[in-house]
Amino acid sequence: MTKTGKRWLTAGLVAVLAAGGYYALLWLKPQPLPEGFASGNGRIEATEIDVSTKIPGRIKEILVDEGDFVKAGQVLAKMDAAVLEAQHREAEAQLQKAEIGIETAKSLVIQREAEKTASIAVVGQREAELDAAQRRLARSEELAPKSAVPVQRLDDDRAEFQKATAAVSAAKAQ
Question: What is the pTM for the complete model shown?
Answer without folding.
Answer: 0.46
